[in-house]
């Protein structure tokens, strides 16, 4: 058993100890957590939709502006 094997084994022991502590602490995902998570998710989704609408509107304006620049260039 080389030094690297010992280091790897020690790392796994520490990982298992941390997992045991996590398990002993109980389930952190309560109903309250899921309720808050859903609320934040819906807010983020709403914000994304608003941003997408605003982007489409700005893209249309940019396209129009680009077209007018081309028209002015050829006139």
TrEMBL record:
<protein>
    <submittedName>
        <fullName>Uncharacterized protein</fullName>
    </submittedName>
</protein>
């Amino acid at each position: 058993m080389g030094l690297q094997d010992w280091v790897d084994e020690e790392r796994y022991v520490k990982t298992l100890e941390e997992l045991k502590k996590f398990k002993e602490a109980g389930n952190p995902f309560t109903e309250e957590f899921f309720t808050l998570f859903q609320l934040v998710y819906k807010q983020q989704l709403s914000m994304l939709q608003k941003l997408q609408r605003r982007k489409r509107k700005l893209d249309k304006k940019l396209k129009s502006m680009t077209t007018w620049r081309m028209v002015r260039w050829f006139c």
